[in-house]
Fold each of these.
Amino acid sequence: MTSTHAESGAPRGRRDRRLLPRLAAAAAVVALALPLAACAGTASAEPAPPAPPQHQPGGHALTASDVDSWLDGALGSALQTTGIPGASVSVVADGQLLTARGYGLADTGTEGDPARPVDPDDTLFRVGSVSKVVSATAVMRLVEDGRLDLDADVQQYLDFDLDTPKGAVTLRHLLTHTSGFEEVIAGLIGTPGSEVSLRDAVSAAPPEQVFAPGTTPAYSNYGASLAGYVAERVSGEPFAELVQEEVFGPVGMTSSSFEQPLPADLDARLAKGYPDDSQPSWPTEVVNAAPAGAMTSSATDMARFMLAHLGDLPADQSPLTADTLAEMHRPALDADELGTLAEGQRMDLAFFDDSTPGLPAFGHDGDTQVFHTAMRMFPEQDAGIFVTLNGNGRDPMDSSELRTTLLEGFADRYLRDDEGASAGGTGAAAEAGPDAETVAATSPGSASSGDASAAAAVAGTYISSRSPFSNPGALLALSGQTTVVPRSDGTVAVTPKPLGTTTGVYEQVGANAWREVGGDAVLATRTDGDDDDDDATVSAISWGASFTLLRAPVWDTASLVLPTVALSVVVLLVSLVAWPAVAVAGAGRRRRGELPAAAPADAAARRGRRTLLLSRLGQLATVVALVGWALVAVQALSFVDVPAVSLRVLQVLQVVGVLAVVPAVLATWQAVRDRRGALVVTGRVLVVLALVALAWFALAYRLISPSVSY
């Protein structure tokens, strides 16, 4: 694209000089126009409404025989369809284990061992983040004993300094995912031999606090682990032993453990985890944020845990008193902290409040890389269901969709009547969960025409609060953005909808609440400034109790950023390829006599060549760095740790690229001053624009930051 030589006076050269500047100018226009077109394209045609969620027929008796038949049909066939090797399920009702079932294989036998079927009592599974509610139960034992205070600054319990510039953090914040910490990815999941102590896991590289505590739900494995470490410190016992003593022992969970590696007798019973049933198993995963996700258990042990939290165990077997259990099962924060986000789902103490109109519920889901688990309890019906899977399935959403189908199907079939009302308990709307007086005022699908101004206020692009913000992990915010588009009937289309890959349509059911048309999922909104301002723009949307979508400024939207980065990289690549190509072509033409021999370079010419060389080295460093960051992002999303030294090397290359803006500007000025022609000047201007755009990108997404602990 750039050239160090003027064209000759040959006729062909004159035609090239007339054509190439036009192409270069057209490239400049395209480089500026495409990102804007991509951005504008996100708000063009109104998306077609998706099929609404479907409820299953209700009114069935909750009996062991009926549940067994239903599970055989709903789960047994699904394993074959999805390629998930095995599953284990337990159901409790009326104070007892109603049924426990095993499906498929704990070991497929593809690696030489005999195939081993799943046994709900004997086979153990990694339950992922379901560990959090067990850990919180142990923490609440210490609260109940007066050894911990839910609302005291946790710093008083720690033996390292926790930097909290946005405000003091309490156990209540940690157990409700509102401590304000950014997401942590590095070091979360490893392989055998990578175990670290709980203290090291929470103190080696604490995440930055980016939100004021109590205000912005942001799911945090670090927060849950810090709560576990507080309990370890105060009790004086290793965390795994504390849980054994305070929870597993009293409840009778004889096949459960937080130990890593597992004791030999339990390890022999552990199911292998698989991407799908056609691939080899993965090595046993090590979760260094142990209180957040390291637990191993069986379906029947988890049935005992559900009975404990439903208040169905004798007092000497219950880990907590009835009052403490009740405290764990109700929303732990209100509008004083959350503002209008409190009109949606809110966290209980470690439990998700999964209530829907007429059906109070609480529970938790859990995922490792190859194990997927869900648990729901329905206190008014004195019932609960637990399901765990040892594979991902052939499609990325298979495990999530299967769990959702089972949990929602169980509630529909056994806990609602044929009209969809609760089949037990009071079923009062005021007890249905997310600010039910507001949300339950409109039944699902009943809205015919919403407020267009409200829909317009919600519209925009959002990023997840569960993101790194202060380090190169900020790049990941570009991969999971959510768009909200207003529809002509006053509803909004959300793409992708929470916990999905498709679009969901939501209708307004309260001043700050939206519910999925035909379903129960609720979104709550918050505006900055005056809530009474009709023109106020929504700044945050909460969903699922512990997640918040934050409005992205236009310069942070992937539809603008990614095309700009791509086009800038193309400009630099063309420049780098043109550099040797032009030099080789010029040398050949000189040999053929089409160009005069190069004159000896004077001092000014030598300085110009050095400037141009520095610009091109900076271009090369920028391209190499961006390729490296892309590879880092892929590894981070796969929980593969990248050595800090590799990240520092990429940062050095990125800095070289940022500094290259200076010689690139000088080279452009030299081309203008020396009247090198429109082609050369246009090419160098494009290079400057590309380097400036990529320098902004590097700074905005923390590719150049003191911390590389993502």
Amino acid sequence: MEPEITAVRTTGEVPSPGWERDLIHATHTMSGAEALVRSLVQGGVRLVFGYPGGAIMPVYDALFDHGHEIRHVLVRHEQGSIHAAEGYARASGGTGVCIATSGPGATNLLTGIADAQMDSTPVVCITGQVASSVLGSDAFQETNVMSVSAPLTKWNHQITDPEEIPAVISKALYLARSGRPGPVLIDITKDAQIGTLAYRPHEEEHEVRGYEPRPTLDEERVEAACRLIDRSRRPLVLVGQGVLLSGAQKELGQFVEKAGLPFACTLLGLGAVTSEHPLYVGLLGMHGNYGPNIKTNECDLLIAVGMRFDDRVTGDLARYARQARVIHLDIDAAEIGKNVPADVEILADAREALGAMTTRVRSASHTAWLAEFTACHAIERERVIENDLNPASPELRMSEVMGRLCSRTEGRALVIADVGQHQMAAARYYRCRDGGAFITSGGLGTMGFALPGAMGVGLARRDRPVVAVIGDGGFQMTLQELGTIVKEQIPVKIMILNNGYLGMVRQWQELFFRGRYSQTELSNPDFVAIAAAYGMKGRRVSERAELDASIDEMLSSASPFLLDVIVEREENVFPMVPSGASCSEIRLE
């Protein structure tokens, strides 16, 4: 039933000028739940992930009438909804939205909210809450979600008055995606959902007092940075996810090409520029490439773009790049100088700053310096890469499987990796090209991220193959989302790299705990049979001669497909920087 219209156009046979505009902005009397759904539609939201429950039931009742405007995907667990929203946001460049009920529904979102905060992912979480009259009374399914989510969100707010809804939803969508993106949580009491308001669409937020999402670029600092670059003989650019978040891929390419700057990527920066670029020197970090790790402690200038110098990149901070000058470019002032002091701080959007630096920096090349990276790569290829991609052992290796997947997709698939050894193998050997992408849980390292994350990616992008690469441990944390994938017919391809262990923990136990494998060996079910029980096609492969055909069968399937790849049980991922060591102490074996 349509809500009552309490403000109408002028009466009479002839409509008054502007009556269509007036009708659009007319005041409607409706429930808070209806206003919430309309506010989401007004804000451009067309897809939400969620799971209903008692305290959010009025919103689900309102959604029933808006299926033509906003699609709801019913997940099998609330954690699946937040990870799917993350995947959707990261693949689409938009904002992911998820909905849950109060109490356990809300707390089941917290891991994903923390994940979104660490990885700067714009998501809006809407949770139901008990009626405001019983807040604080330990009512059924009541949790103080405001307190527990405050450290994990960019902003959170509890709505107890339905009149707040249009403005709060508009603000939530704006805050989540502007500046440094992040998660926002809106908790809405049941009486605010049921109560009525005189609804008027709220204009999109463009200004929040005290909030400056786009800092003003300081031209003097740009000049200072360019002077350092022009004088440098051994520069190295560190590319983080900020480049992707700002859409600065083109500007980054122009910048490094003009100044002849070698660049390396963090885990979340992969895909910012094709890995075939002649100036790309590899992956940074604990299991990154030999060259960029070694040369970080030999360069004379580090240019950090949209990255935060986390411990997996720096190793021991006391011994990190002590010889180098540092330019740090980031949109978040809290990150600049937090871990590594900067000689030149550029607080700005990456796209704007890189464009300005490109116009000012001198054209240059660093042929001899680049040759040193080439020499390092040759050492790594001889001692690590060749055996990884072409092993002599009869068992399949994770690294060669990822190399074959890259070859069969030509690096153009959207790969969503879970967390563990397989994640590092994927990051090293799936080389993104021409629109390919690598999406993973970085800062929080959330096992179970990839399967629901791939659902969001698959719904955001139909133009590329979507492949979730998952370990057998992480898969069992969220495998119930197979039901969602089949019901919604999301054409996700699932590749399990199955070694029967919690592989990364086992590797550390082997190397640093005298081979004492404490609680890391798994007793796995038949994953192909589980997929079949959900109605999904699947196949198991363990023979090298069958690998390419199995991958091709997976990729060619028009429907979701699960490929269970049995790999070497005790394969280790190298290179490796031991925890607490200097990045120059990277081990090749």
Amino acid sequence: MQARARKSRRYAGRRTLWRITGDPACKGCGRSLMDPETGVILGQTAEGTAVLLGVMRCGRIWLCPVCAATIRHKRAQEITTAVVEWIKRGGTAYLVTLTARHASKDRLDALMDALQGSRSGTAGEIRAAKAHVAAAETALQDVVDATREAVNAARRDAPDGVKRRAMAAAKEEAAGDLAHAQSQLRTAQSELASTRRRSGAYQRLITGGTWAGRPDDGDPEGIRGRIGYIGMIRATEVTVGLANGWHPHIHAIVLVGGRTNGERAEKKITGTFEPGEHALGAWQDHWRTVWVNALKAINPKWRPSDDCDRADCPCEGKGHAIDFKRLETERDAKDLGEYIAKTQDGKQPALELARADLKTAMGENVTPFELLYRIGDLTSGVPDDGEEGSASGIGSLAWNLARWHEYERATKGRRAIEWTRYLRQMLGIEGGDTHEDDLDMLLGADAEGGELRAGVAITDKGWTAVARKGLDLAATEAAEGKDGNFDPEAVGERVREVLALADVADTVVVLTAGQVADAYTGMLENLARRREEAAARRRREAERDDTGKVSLRHAGRDRRTAEKRARRHVARPK
């Protein structure tokens, strides 16, 4: 019953999202049709579940409670598979939680930039910013040329003895225009700089000579080599409270104790070992220092504290820095990826990474989906009087709406769950972390129920009415075989009963066995095509990284190394 109630809550949340979101994909998720002339197909699978074909899916893991539930469940399974595989091989895994100090006036996008790094601008934004710089440079050059002409004219026209004074007066007269043009150029350059990705505190953890090694200074391995770091899986979670504002934080499962061979796309794991206590201690001390200093450099007020006495803070009194938990057994990992419909208890890393949609925030904090659910309650007339069955969550309607829209803007273009590059291939885990990969997961989940054995078609008019009346979940559940009657006509009758509530029962057509089979075949073909396209995209990205871009980066590093050696040679006494 709890699972059914949660599912109903998610669908209600998506209907609220249709009304308030600024994201076009979310507005159409589950209600806009791919082809209005074809309509939609509600099919019953061999396992008795229902599949809805022909509607748009947004795949927005941050925003859509319905899509997020499926995607995060699949991500949790991936994480569990990876961690279990690593522990089976003899490796070691740590759950690392990274937090920052925050206050009620801090903007979420600024905090996310500090932790995750800033986002790159879109191609259109970058082109526009470059055009602004070019125009500002041209305008400045025009002012410089005009000033030079005015000064030369003053020198020519002024009588002997006052030429210098006349030239100075011409310069002074043009100074305002010159200062304005220079200011416009600086503004345009700043706009262009803002479109480039800037590192956050997270990126600082895995850069620098102390971490990666200094071959020229007698430390070729660095901390990374001494602990056998092979990569990590990172997830970012967000909560918010009335008193202390936004609290974004990062959970990462870090895999250590590995020996590898090769570079980048050719990198392979050749063995495992148990990192020494001294090496592990040095790693943890280094990350704590880098994390604190990186946040302090970005904004001193975000410098993590060593302890915390706030009852509503998710840090649980441990302070806003880094917490390390070692996963001791395969069972530790297996327990975490299970589909457990309850709040996390801090001992389940895979669930803690991937299943943010199941979480209820601590104390006076709420999760973003709880914001969405409260907005739905308050706008549908649910009383907010503290009685049983009243509106959930905290804050006024205006406060929740403002926080939700800020959350939408701050998470746009960011990845909720991300793997270190090449970690998947080393562990034999297929797939990727992009939005396209999330959409593939949604399609793959549809196909997992097995072959379709019954189904109905609903016209564009019918499904539009269903969505408008909020009957999308009821219609889907009507197509399931929970009552044990799998006869196609019975499925059609159940769906008609639901659509009758929207006065569109006549838009339902029971499909023949051949039509249902064709729909299932088409679904599998579409999924196979998307997976092939995704694999080709990842190959292109790997080839791009292993050719020009990497070569240039190595060339620069080799040149700097040679220059350092030359300077030491010159400075060495004869």
Amino acid sequence: MRKDVRILLVGEPKVGKTSLIMSLVSEEFPDEVPLRAEEITIPADVTPERVPTHIVDYSEAEQSDEQLYQEISKANVICIVYSVNNKKSIEKVTSHWIPLINDRTDKDSRVPLILVGNKSDLVEHSSMETILPIMNQYQDIETCVECSAKNLKNISELFYYAQKAVLHPTGPLYCPEEKELKPSCIKALTRIFKISDLDNDGILNDSELNFFQRTCFNTPLAPQALEDVKNVVRRNMMDGVKDNGLTLKGFLFLHTLFIQRGRHETTWTVLRRFGYDDDLELTQEYLFPMIKIPPDCTTELNHNAYLFLQSVFDKHDKDRDCALSPEEVKDLFKVFPYMPWGPDVNNTVCTNEQGWLTYQGYLSQWTLTTYLDVQRSLEYLGYLGYSIIYEQESQAAAITVTRNKRIDLQKKQTQRSVFRCNVLGARGSGKSGFLQAFLGRNLQRQRRIREEHKSFYAISTTYVYGQEKYLLLHEVMPDFDFLTETDLSCDVVCLVYDINNPRSFEYCAKVYKQYFIDSKTPCVVIAAKSDLHEVRQHYSLSPHDFCRKHKLHPPQPFTCSTNEAPSKDIYTRLTTMAMYPHARLRCMCACNRCTYCLCQNLLKLELLRSIKAQLRTVVFNRCSHTRLWLPLVLFLLHVFTLC
């Protein structure tokens, strides 16, 4: 909505332009009327629409044509004043003023016009018979008001209608010739209907109508009022009401009726509540709310966001198979102006045997988008109406910004749920297979993936000591001479080599020594294609000796050439190492224990400390029930310590 309104009054001399302004300000007819009133500003708190309003007068005697043209270009609405007892001033409306204004304004951004018939106190008849044909001829004319500056008749109404013409314009909503809503308005209201249709059954039941009413107007409808609304629709169209609920056709009919009856502010209130501007486009402020992300922090969806996305999934999973078919995905994104997910999504997240998006895959894709491009995620949540459904100020309320990773290292714990693993290796080393295996696809299923639909990301969930976490794998293109900051910024690194290719490991060794040998990022070497014959690598050290020298975990054998889905153990290990990077200590004992084992022992120690802390609370509790249970709890603690 505009922050202010600028009203310009034009017309022939002596029609009462200045008198109208002075009567509004002083609330009485002036004894002496100057040639031109100075520009006045009405504060927001005394206007019906709560918007500051500037009223500008024009005087042919005091102003030049160039000054008039400048004022026309600055005006938000123009009132063409004529005298109801002066036919010449009425004729000048069409012969002079409307053509002049149209010549001085862009065709695509014409200002609304209001015809003002002043001096109605001097005649007994109305000028509307003469004015109505003019209104029908020119679409830019919003309305016509007959008033009297002398009797103060319709003075405040005149300026209210002028405000209304700017703040709630009819032009973008309704075509008077066709007597129907414009396509852009239908498109916007259809999105609003689909968002408000919480169960996606194609009708707004009483509960959904009340939710819509409360969301837009801060008050529910009484049961009788609901019935009255539906009865109005029933009387005017056959399929406007179905199963005692309002259909999309009925919803659109109601807004058409509002506009035809001059209540277009009702439709604008709805549109603006759902994020639309005066051009019926979603505003940048609505789609991209401000969110501050400090350096070395990541973005995740919070609990409420996942609940909302779950409700969206359930709403569109019509066959209740816990997967979204292509038709169901298309239906879900009907509230978007474009299809946000391409075919590569099916190779980024988990799908069922039919290649349809599973519930887990659906949430994983949202998690990936939020992690990689939070602005895009905010935009998507805006299209779905998150802030409206959850009654939040903006969809930024759905985002959690994690704390700096350095603090996680210092405190030796993290609250993050999403961890990034960059996968590096020479061409043909098996990186893509490693990513797809994480999604449960063996080599046979991977061969069905078309090259143009290949994805360089894979994301799914793993469980670390019962905690569900997301692991994001990113395949980095093998360009040793140029690795970007993004290629290097991650929580854990996978260095993949092909055991059947003698030149494959050399790339991993060089990347590690160049970029990661002195970093705090845990690294794991993956011996891919372990089902094939292992050959000697053309490098000064064997992969095992290289890992031993740099105190890395020995190369992990991996293959996706299996009959069943590949094992996910390695991905759990990667997530564990990412969660506890501080455990990446150089083990100096004789056995040279690996990073993963250090992580496991650390987890066990932290869990043990947690249980001991809880037991202290139990011991000091004087409840008799506690004394009975205490021996058993101590016994369980002893067993856990032995494990």
